[in-house]
## 1
Amino acid sequence: MSEQNLNGSSGTNGAKPKRSIEVNRHATTQMDDMALSTDPNVLMSVRDLQQHFPINQGIIFQKQVGAVRAVDGISFDVRKGETLGLVGESGCGKSTTGRTILHLSKPTGGKIYFQGQDITNIKGQELKKVRRHMTMIFQDPYASLNPRLTVQNIVSEPLVIHGIGTPKERSEKVQELLELVGLSRHYGSRYPHEFSGGQRQRVGIARALAASPSFIVADEPVSALDVSIQAQVVNLMEDLQSRLNLTYLFVAHDLSVVRHISNRVAVMYLGKIVELADRDTIYTTPGHPYTRALLSAVPIPDPKAEKQRKRIILAGDVPSPINPPPACRFHTRCPLVQQICREQTPEFRDIGGGHFAACHFAEDVADGKLAMV
Amino acid sequence: MAPLLEVRNLKTQFKSKDGVVKAVDDVSFYIDKGETLGVVGESGSGKSVTAMSILRLVQAPGKVVDGQILFEGRDLLKLDDKDMRKVRGKEIAMIFQDPMTSLNPVLTVGRQLSEPLITHLGLTKTQALKESVDLLKMVGIPNAAERVHSFPHHFSGGMRQRVMIAMALACRPKLIIADEPTTALDVTIQAQILELLEKLQAETGTAVMLITHALGVVAGMADRINVMYAGHIVETATSDELFDNPRHPYTMGLLKSIPRLDESRRGRLQPIKGSPPDLLDLPKGCPFVSRCEYALPQAEIILPQLRQVPSVTDGGRSEHWIACHSEVKMGDPPVHPAQEVA
């Protein structure tokens, strides 16, 4: 996989599950300041990104009465060739983040950099040029393919839009792409309804790859598929990544799949990233109480392991993103809540080795000094 | 002791213009009093249709064409509609997957909770409303006395599922069928609901048939597990036995193909090749044959029947049945190695 491409900057890679104390040169910057990392290995940077959806009242004289703060000030880097997993529960803003950085909706604040270039406010031809390099794989393989178009037309659409190749070249390219994603090269004349869910997702992946992008946002790419098919698509995505040197932002709610496919993982809660670290760190020594609770809630297919685990049951529901709790957003549900959590917003800070967490007590949570059960 | 529910040779079929879909094909199993039976399978494996058949809720063009469903010795398939209505909700209750579409949006939660209490237990409206408040308290809904007058859309997904559970428990049924009760919910809410189900089951002694596609959910909850594939039960064993010593190639394939949260990456996933079969065009023999890594030649033509195999847990006394011609164990080298092209 892409671990080789990561120039070893991901700190702990498999062997040592403990939080690494090795100095990580690239990740010691404070994420919250707006300074852009000059690391040439960073492909996509997001700084203080905000996406607020207005709530209007009135029919003729509309007036904004509030906003859904879907994404509320998040910062992260995606390194070349890596897979950054973005996890969280429904409504936490993970899909909105993916859509916003691809310019599918305009951010209400913050900056997006792609290959060092500020793409936050670009438009028209300039945007089209950048778009060629970043695409999306969608969740629902039934809704994301136009039922009236043939596979040939679906997969070649990005090529047509970007004016790549002659019609004959395009048709050859489509055949190549179909083969690349594990379908027969003769499927071009078929329609989406002739395929199963897993095969449709392959068509969606072929379309995403058509214009040879370098960055792909995959929004829940396997969650609509049957269990026995999920592994096929995950493997395909990994193979394509190493063959084509792709960078993924993998948005998902299935934490087991994310642990498998990601190099680093970011956890979102109510519009904020609460923790970001490499995959084994986040799963073995999480520094945010929410991450801990989230991980403990995932059932493991092994009755013996299940009996030994202690589940942290969070009380209540996720608060509304229209009116999120002040200071730490998790304080209304946190089993470790202290007075400071209700008064001060915790900084999203590096607690060692590129392990970022937004909790006043992150070090103690990661060390296990603060027990949660 | 006779089991609480015994299903014998159940066959449920759907007629369509393209042919007959055998959604459930000759399925037999039992549920004891107070136990939890997990039913695992992918979409189209027949797990939900089995549940609907038990409650006789299969809608046309579907039909239960053969078999017996013995509930405390009575064959539910032979009851008239009036007697069957007395079973539904009172003796056997159901929790559906999507709490939004299975609650009535124009009635208050209290009205909906009262309904079975009035119909089955003969309570008055006032008594039923009081009982509804108690039920909501039992499933952990705060301010139950006020919330009983709320409409379903006032509740979040997790809260709605709690209301569904309260409704299912209303008449203290002997069996609750929970069809993917947590699939529509987030993991932290799923944990809340599963814990609640477990707690209430311990308190009330109800048996639960838990239908899900997630192996993790049944691992923690179920006493025994049925694995279904293309309308058949292909493996059935106690929960510990099934995960310790899976013997059907499909079960083994499922366990191998899912990444585990508590394990560091071990290299590539090992998927099951191909895709689930078309129920209109099932092979003559074993329905899993085209995807199987271990298929023997006779699997092409002979449908394997459930047979008992030796178990490794509980001193070899636990039950373990598989419907497979092969004698293979987890880790055996495949006879037909998977190629990864669909």
## 2
Amino acid sequence: MSKEIRMIDGNEAVAYIAHKTNEVIAIYPITPSSPMGEHADAWSAEGKANIWGTVPDVIEMQAEGGAAGAIHGALQTGSLTTTFTASQGLMLMLPNMYKIAGELTPSVFHVASRSLAAQALSIFGDHSDVMATRASGFAQLGSGSIQEAHDFALIAQASTLKSRVPFVHFFEGFRISHEINKINVIGDETIRAMIDDELIHEHRARGMSPENPVIRGTAQNPDIFFQARETVNPYYNEAPDIVQSYMDRFAELTGRQYNLFDYVGHPEAERVLVIIGCGGETVEETAKYLQKQGEKVGVVRVRLYRPFSVKHFVNALPATTKVIGTLDRTKEPGSAGEPLYQDAITAIKEALEEGTVPFSETPLLVGGRYGLSSKEFTPAMVKGLYDELKKDKPKNHFTIGIKDDVTHTSIEYDPEFSIADEDTLRSLFFGLGSDGTVSANKNSIKIIGEETENYAQGYFVYDSKKSGAKTISHLRFGPDPIRAPYLIDQADFVACHQFSFLEQIDMLKYAKQGATFLLNSIYGPDKVWDNLPKPVQEDILEKELDLHIIDAYEVAEDTGMGQRINTIMQTCFFAISGVLPREQAVEEIKKAIRKSYGKRGEAVVQKNFAAVDQALENLYHVEPPQEITSQKERRPPVTEDAPAFVKEVLGTIIEAEGDSLPVSALPEDGTYPTGTTKYEKRNIALQIPVWEPDLCIQCGKCVMVCPHAVIRQKVYDPKHLEDAPETFKSTEARFREFPDTLFTLQVAPEECTGCEVCVEACPVKDKSEVGRKAINMAPQPPIREQEGENWDYFLSIPDVDRTKLKTNSIKNAQLLQPLFEFSGACAGCGETSYVKLATQLFGDRMVIANATGCSSIYGGNLPTHPYTTNEEGRGPAWNNSLFEDNAEFGMGMRLTMDKQNQYARELLQELADDIGPELAEEIHNADMSEETGVHEQRARVKELKKRLQDLNDPKAKDLLTLADKLVKKSVWIIGGDGWAYDIGYGGLDHVLASRRNVNVLVLDTQVYSNTGGQSSKATPLAAVAKFAANGKEEPRKDLGMMAMSYGYIYVAQVAMGASDTQTLKAFREAESYDGPSLIIAYSPCIAHGYDMKKSLEHSDLAVKSGLWPLYRYDPRLAEEGKNPLQLDSRAPSIPLTEFAYNETRYRMLLQTNEERAEKLMEKAQEGINERWTLYQQMANLTYSDES
Amino acid sequence: MVDLKTNYLSLELKNPLVASSSPLSKDPQKVRELAEAGVSALVMHSLFEEQVIKESLELDHFLSRDREQFAEALTYLPEVGQYAIGPDAYVDRIRKVKEVAGIPIIGSLNGVSTGGWINYAQKIEAAGADALELNLYNIVTDIKLTSDELENAYIELVEDIRKEIEIPLAVKLSPFFTALPHFIQRLAKAGADGVVLFNRFYQPDFDLEELEVTPSLTLSDSDELRLPLRWIALLYGRIEIDFALTTGIHQAEDLIKAMMAGAQVAMSTSAILKHGMGYPTKLLAEVQLWMEEHEYESIQQMQGSMSQQASRQDAAFERANYIQVLGSYR
């Protein structure tokens, strides 16, 4: 049998087998399982065949529910079919899972198991999704390592064919799906030897066919349904033995023996833990360690959880077992215990009654929870658990790994306990997302794992920001297999790739005594010491760290690497860690560079080679002086003026110390304050814009396009300048409505991401130096403090009176305070400026339903939140339900607003005499179509509340709680194209059709941006995206046209970069329309592959090419006898190629398959021409009666 | 029947009309159409080393830029097997064009590094090109670089490439040389078989409304013929090298003038782009008609007939400024 060793992650390990053993693969992206689908799609696109020599057909569906339906159909017609999913995705498949199992259909669903959204969404790993499907009739096989995930994928495939019971094969999201480890790849011969073709023929023979017609999917009545349901019992009874037989066959073929329940530990163990998944690796290694120290402990690792074989489980337990602790990586609130606990109790009770238990006395059994949402589960915790089991009355329904100071479920443990061996090198790397640290580390472990006899493991931790994100790489290297699915807390090697991190994170607490510390420093060997923060100096001296430095940015600049210091830092790591001899390391790095980058061209290879060579020349060893010379302390995570909750809870999370927060610190229902991003001064921009008052024409364009709301403008009375800081800039205001006032454009220096979109938007050029605009980029550090002071002062100046402001021009609208600021979105994000605009115009009365996706992540991911409030404390109320149901979620909000408004009006009428008929009448008949009307109504409601306080009528109390609903509320349903075009389309269509007054904002990036750029139905023809690696063959769905067909939906297609005034007009019209409105907003995205500072220009080209025509369809015009469709852009004036070939998403195809690119582009151009003609014809129709 | 045959870079051509370097050569079908329309040879569009490098670095930048910084999206574009980055796609295109064209194909190369020039020249030769045209043009912005140093570097480059390839070698020049005759003579000594006069470039223009610098390239017209016409006429017979005239060939008269100046071939793209793929047929028919009407037997008969040497009108070619003189004064 062939033996191939590879360093891969769990997703690839599983997808490899799935692709080899199936014919049809129906997929849908969801973290953390998306890469499995991406691999399968890419392999099929490359023409890679399965073991039978045919290339699997990979199809992306509109949702997981759709994928499950397609799978069901493919299975029912006899295909070998699989899918990959996680979390809510698995939930959407659940109805079909019952059907697939009920019809005894062999299939394997590979699940990168992930938390289910409850008080919050979490993308990280636990078993709550899988456990929610345990009653579906699917078998459940759980893997605990990358190798096991690879192996069990095959065992599951073989077993399902034989047993006819469909399988969920699961492994923890991120910890297994994304960990890279060394595995033996199963060769095709082994796969063939495991799969019995006869069983496939039988499966095919059962498939629906007109040649042999049968009926399935019948409806049954009370007379027989029950009995029919019991018919499957023999299959479930036999399934465990079938799985074991394939595990045995697999062992014969590969030497890797697995059992349904694997016991590891002391043969006469008294304390036994029972666990599923990768936590089992940790328990197993800890049990072995403790066993060597004489402790009678062991672990049962559950492999096949469903069907649960009582016989095999009980037989796996040592006869000496006195106490059993079950560990569930899920939470079932209100249950008698979590699933594994309940099954273990049932199994032991049954076996006791039947007399089949191996032990003489009944063991005590307790259970608890661990590791939810990838919470760390370490050997120290395992030791804590074994110690707990020693007690006379061990805690039941416990938790481990957190501090529960509310219901006191948590078990104490000694975090210092470690089983780390001396032969393994543990390394930690702190990098910036954009500097390439993770890519370099992935390369390093591949070099060690694949080019040497050593073993290696890599796991990568990312923060929740999309710009300026920090990454921490955890790498282990050693002579023995690495079975440690938990983070490194004591490192032999610590690398800090960003000097500024030293001020933010206590990274040296992870350094062992005498560890090596590699620092990327702009300060040379003579100056670095004095520039280190004091706590860092203290740690270096106290722990006797071996300090090495390099100015990686200088080397990167010199060698054409730009901001990417990956290769440089990687070389330094190899040079000083001693993990490989230096010469061999350099040779291997270069080999890896050629392998990784060779296909991108020789120039890329050469610049990386140069970086390797120069890195070695610029690496210095520093002997620190034996004294503390610095007084600089670490910067606090949030500003001094932050509220207590922000400081104590959110600040702790920002400091990467969130694990230390006890249960009591956190809100019990997932409710968090808004407006907290302003306390987190991230300082991620190297350059920020600087205003030139002498040139500025006060047009507001830079303010409008700023994705992070860091540029603001104000018009104010000159008296407000009296206490201004010396450097505060001001000029005469050019606003007709505000004579004799001053104007200031101010930048928030510590919040800016440095994207430069504002500079690109500025239409002004200095007549004597055209390169100088009214706003220009300048280095941030020298002006940070001064501009910070100016920013604070600027905020203290009152905003203009909204009621006096006509917001129909950009310059006026941009005087409105944004109630969405400083989000963690990507620098230059094309979505956020639309969201910001909506909050400027309507934020004080907005309720937002936000579909899962980028906008829910930068809108709602902890630690801090960008939606904020105005001076009166009003601002958008925001919530995210799910991905698929956002339109319906928003509809529910509208229903509340309407119903409660109606009820409040009813009460108002009933109580009119007590309140005062005049006030009641005014409230009842208020015109709130304009801003002024809303403000006047607020004043009336304020008076109403005052009067209601004095009434002792229960109805008055009732009305008091509803009075605010008498003021207009603006319901916004926001999401991306993945939601609106695909997974949520059915709901969106229904909500739009309902005629209810909701405003739908589709932030259309033309791909699933948040999960990494998968194709959606908004992806244009000829563009490359994941799941459309060969270029999309179908044109973008015309969502606007579909909505227009109802005739009563306001529809606008906008692109801020092409026309900001049309965008503003559309937002104002959409909100003012008393019915459903849909704004489809062109949103440039990093997934398009170009410099984001040019996003406005790209949007403009998209419009000019006709790919994105601008229009507004206003049903009110039809009522006036006018054509409701107004085209706001001209006929296509440039060929599509002129727009498209500026973007990597199109260009890639030209570079991989020119012929196809040209063919698709031609088709795309035809489509654009045809569509424009259609729009034009529609816009020219006569609606008046005179026709 | 007049004889249109000519000889350029030791290639026997059926007529002197050659399709110059243009995007048309990217499509084998179009090349075939051009050949059918009568062009006797075709110069491929240029392989720009600078573009190869830029494309490669750009692709790398956009594939690497946002990788591995957000847990849900470790990448934003799909991984594909192989990119046609570098000279391979170009070389492959030469092969495909050669298969269908049925006329000599001349590769065209614009390098930036010595290694790149030589390496790509070899690849073009290996792909089956009948000759190679070196597109020697870059904008010199370094104020320390002297014209001498630059010319020496060019000569060295031609010598180096000459050593490495067997096929005929032409050099395409810009008109911006202080002492063009001397330089062309040096090129001939360095091993160049021909010179192509002259290159046309993207030239920046100013958009006065937007105050933007806009690069632009306009199609040539017949007026532009006169610059290369002068130089070829001046040098014909004085330097042993083939001349190709490549700017301003729009009508039969233009081609005839080029021949009379001493060019072996006349190259055209603008006229074809302007008038369509069938234009060469029309233009060649007109040349033939003109020759018949004026009783010329062959192209070779007229080649160089109005060069400086042959016309004996030195002053007309050498005068730099307008001088009012009496026509009869000598």
